[in-house]
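Lab notebook, bench 4. We co-purified these components, and the gel suggests they stay together. Before we commit to crystallization screens, I want a quick structural picture of the whole thing.
Request: model the full complex, all chains together.
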Amino acid sequence: MTVTETQDVAARPIGDPVLEASGVTMRFGGLLAVNDVNLTVREGEIVGLIGPNGAGKTTFFNCLTGLYKPTSGQVRFSGTPLPPKPRAVVRAGMARTFQNIRLFANMTALENVMVGRYCRTSAGALTSVLHGPKFRREEAATRARAQELLEFVGLGRSTEHLARNMPYGDQRRLEIARALATDPKLILLDEPTAGMNPQETRQASDLIFKIRDSGLSVVVIEHDMRFIFNLCDRVLCLVQGSALIEGTPEEVQSDPRVIEAYIGTGEDDEDEGPQDDVPGGEV
Amino acid sequence: MTDFETPVDDLSEAPAVKPGKPIAWPLGLAGVALVIVGAFLSWSYDGQILNDLSVNFYPNGLQNLAIILAVLSLVLLLAEKGPLVKLGSWVDATLGLRALGLGLVLYMVLVLIAISIESDGLINVNPGGYVTLVGAALIAASAWMLPLHQLRDMSEARMPAWFEILSIAFLMAALLFTAAYTLAQDEAWPLILCLVFAGTAATALFRSGVMSFVGHAGQRHRKVLTLAAFAAAFLFPFTQNGDDTNMSIAGAVLVFSATAMGLNIVVGLAGLLDLGYIAFLGSGAYVAATLSTSAFATIGWKPPFLVVVLVGACVAATLGLIIGSPTLRVSGDYLAIVTLGFGEIFRFSMFNLDGNNGPNLTNGPNGIPGIPDLELFGFNFGTDHTIAGIDLTRNSNYYFLLLLLIGGVILAFSRLNNSRIGRGWVAIREDEKAAEAMGVNVFGLKLLAFAIGAFLAGMAGTVKAHQDGAVSPDQYIFLESAFLLAAIVLGGMGTIVGVLLGATILKVLPEKLRFFLEYRLLLFGLLLVLMMRFRPEGLVASRRRKLEFHEEDEALAVAVEEERLIAAEEAK
Ligand SMILES: Nc1ncnc2c1ncn2[C@@H]1O[C@H](COP(=O)(O)OP(=O)(O)OP(=O)(O)O)[C@@H](O)[C@H]1O
Ligand SMILES: [Mg+2]
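Here is the predicted assembly.
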């Protein structure tokens, strides 16, 4: 924690493991979408997850967060096994965003983030109807925290906008704020810069560093290689459901198999090194 | 200042600006004069029909309504040009006048038709009727020749607080008066004409933007608005002076509204389609009946009524949990089918628990008649009372009790809506998967919505049993569930005012317009189809839903956004 981006990557103290996924496998009928993938994420680490389209990155996220029940494999969080139930996962401290933005379209930005506070608050139906001082205190705290998070991601001025009316980039940031509202220790970002222009992408980078600096671990899926290699401490590359290579950005960047997986053709391209936007950056 | 002159291109861009003809204004004034003069003359030769419109210089009921519409037109005309011109920059006189003119013409045409049908032919129409019709036509014609303006945004309109509060109170009083007056009409034609009057006046108020002003004022003085609405509802029995039929309708409306408000949680907030909801009202009513001191009651335990309310509500909530726990895991259409089935199972159970099959709880098809009137704290609901010289009948007593109940239901609804629980419901409605991934207890909250909705309906049911004096299975047919749903859709899902309005319309119209009882279903079907086509968000849309259905409307989107921002500013 509290490591700043200016420090050398190698000099970072390694924290305790937050997430330990071992042997995660997800099978859809005949399709092996995720095949025996292991991933360990430590405190204060930013881990990148790359791979060509259909490699199983999103499916892997779904397995981690309990949206899918993995065919086999185990996910441990802060040392304890996680049941594949979204609610238990969020409570344990793992939150996520979606590749195709899934905000509550007809709620305001503030309300969206307040929904994220759901699992950290406790007012029940009766308490709400009675509207006692305890309820009002909790409600005010929820509102204040949501406002604070919106300011954190740079949306402090859009709190009353309906999510559906917000610009695309803002919607992505709002999703991050909503995820942060669950007080996670680890946040999973599924293509947070998809569809963004270079300036917005830079802002997203800064935001992710800021999140890491506030003590969280981050796993991020991206197709934008410059973004990934600049951001991450470690990168895992998935190809057709299996882990191809895991290592520092430099190691992954210079691995011929990665380039091959992305470009799909053989030896000729090997020594060129990956270009940032080689892998179809469309989605 | 220059601010007002510079945005010339703004004006030219806006489609709503159109120059008028100079003759329009005097024409309108002439129309108003003619309507008023005509209303003072006799309309009909026959004094027996339409509450007697045959006397010259003595305007009667229906003629007074025409005069009121004419006066409203006059005010709008004077806002267009004349002493009230300041008002004209806020209020859209032209659109309001169009509504008034059209409405008046329709009104007068119906009057003439009524006269010629009720007594033989148009020959019975006296000159006054024609004069008024011509006046109405002139107002309509002038309204179409008046210029269309670019108006200032009503949300910026600020008046002294006393004025805003007064206008809220005035609106409520007008509502109370119109409701009382309309309900006092026992014959079909006057009733229809009253409805046309009310519709015209309401449309004019909406189109001219007066309603929008009251709406904004209401937002600034929320408490006043609520209080005024309840005061108006509270005063309603005093306008009836012993007329028990109307009070019985009013009581039925309140029961229906309270139930609809409960269903509003399930459908409007949590987005779960429940087609068997009437069963929860029924279970409350049956609990109250079996625990009452009726000779036909089947259970020996006779607890005080407040306990009965609680038991009835809890039984309904338990049923809600029982039906909900296996079915809420399925979604959408399946849930609708299962709840539909549940509604029928409830009815058949009540039908068959007559001692022949299983225990005798419900007396089967005969139901439980002879449920005695309530007695709370020594106050007997069956007897009449006189307050300030005004008779308050048995049904008025129940009306007051039900008013208390619905007040509680509304309070519960609005507080839940603005709480963690309510946000969870709306999140589920918006995107169930995302809600789940954010740690919302989806299944639990759905179940809770079911249970709370059932609880509220069960509460209403216990009062209903005593108010009706009897329960029987055929009161709880599927059609009732469908009407509850229709009230919500018609009024505006997830809103309070809308659902109250929808429930009132759907309950009052068939009661008063008995003659179209046969066509009731046809007409409601038609009404719903028309609503879905032209106003899918319901009569009173929560602003959000308006956006949902009219996405292409950019101006609306911007207006809604700005309104929200202003509201947020004020909240700080
Ligand atoms: N629910 C499902 N049922 C069946 N097959 C699925 C399901 N979800 C994903 N798949 C398949 O699993 C494979 C991996 O998909 P996934 O969405 O995880 O890829 P991805 O790495 O996220 O790709 P992209 O970069 O395009 O987002 C794909 O072939 C996809 O068709
Ligand atoms: Mg994906």
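Chain B has three domains: 23-236, 245-374+395-541, 543-571. Worth comparing against the SEC data before the next meeting. Confidence is low (pLDDT under 50) at residues 1-15 of chain B.
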